[in-house]
Amino acid sequence: MSGILSRAVAETSTGPKLRRGWPESARVRFWLGVRAAWPVVTGYVPVGLALGVLAAQEGLGPFATGAMSLFVYAGASQFIAVGMIGAQAAALSIVLTTFFINLRHLLMSAAISPYLRGLKSWTLAALAFLLTDETFGVASAEFSRRGRGDPVYFTGLGLTAYGTWCAATVIGAWAGQGLASPEALGLDFALKAMFIGLLAGQLRGESMVRGAVAVLAGAGALAAAPYLGGFSVMAAAAAAAAVGVVIARWMDESS
Known about the structure:
The chain is mainly α. Helices cover 74% and strands 0% of the residues.
């Protein structure tokens, strides 16, 4: 990942297309991304520690846990994979399960791609590796506020979150080797708490449309869960986003 920043700088230094609303200095934009990662980092530390502890309980050492974080980098999928490894599930079952869980990245990529138009496909592929639920939430809000995306900003944001996650899971796996009851520390709630904090940050000071979309998506996911299982979140998010677009356009035409 060391070449992402240099490639992003090279592609944005040819003109002002991707710098509208952003500082001219690539270094400043990179550190803006690093600072913006603070809420993600504060969430990733306890969640990563929790994953590492659970991985240790299932027999995965710090090296194996770190390798999973380094190459997979998908929190929810890693939690499920660790559980399936502990249950001695077949490798193909683990791969397919995590693949379907991560299909939501299609929605996130589609939502953020308009802000990064003009970048080469291999640069987008490198940045896509750093795209998670949390970095998407922070980046999409900032890109929307500024009117344009910036790959250097996203690189700072993504690399900071990525490094934190990898380090936290390794430390958790190391510490978890001597921990008998991880649930006693409340680490199992860390992932939920982080998502609640990110959602609250995005809704603060925004229009009622975003709030309505969030409520509709949550209610839809709960209602569809008995019928769609793991696909309920993706289906509810897509439906709520479509309703939000219709409402926003109707409000713009009415004003």
